[in-house]
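Lab notebook, bench 4. The sequencing result for the construct came back, and we need a structural model before the next group meeting so we can plan mutations. Quick request posted to the team channel:

Model the 3D structure of this chain.
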Amino acid sequence: MDGLAERIGHLCTLLGADDGLSAYVEQAGAGETLAAVVDALGRGEYGAALERDLDALDEAMARFGLGAVTTSERVYRPAPGTGGGHPVVQAWACPLVRRCSRVEPVTRDSAPPACAAVGTAMALVRVPT
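Done. Here's the predicted structure in token form:
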């Protein structure tokens, strides 16, 4: 299946779920764009204009806070002015050579908790996402 067919299928599934997507599209100011997509599909026009409208719909919904609605893929894009890079998740993990599964969240003011088995501080781990 090509990319355009997948995007249309994903949008169709969301619209058929009756979870209020159409109302959110209206609130995002993309009602006319969705109408243009539906109209093009009804006429069987699967060209560049449809792809532009799908892209515009995804952009509007992403700005609205729901993310892309014609793809299931999520792509990391750094926020403007952050200098790029990748988001990182931090956690306190077992400090032993053969780690146990204990992981504690890092908070702004958290000091490393102690490993109950050996009494040393847990290790800070950073996992790029």
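The mean pLDDT is 84.
Will bring this to the meeting.
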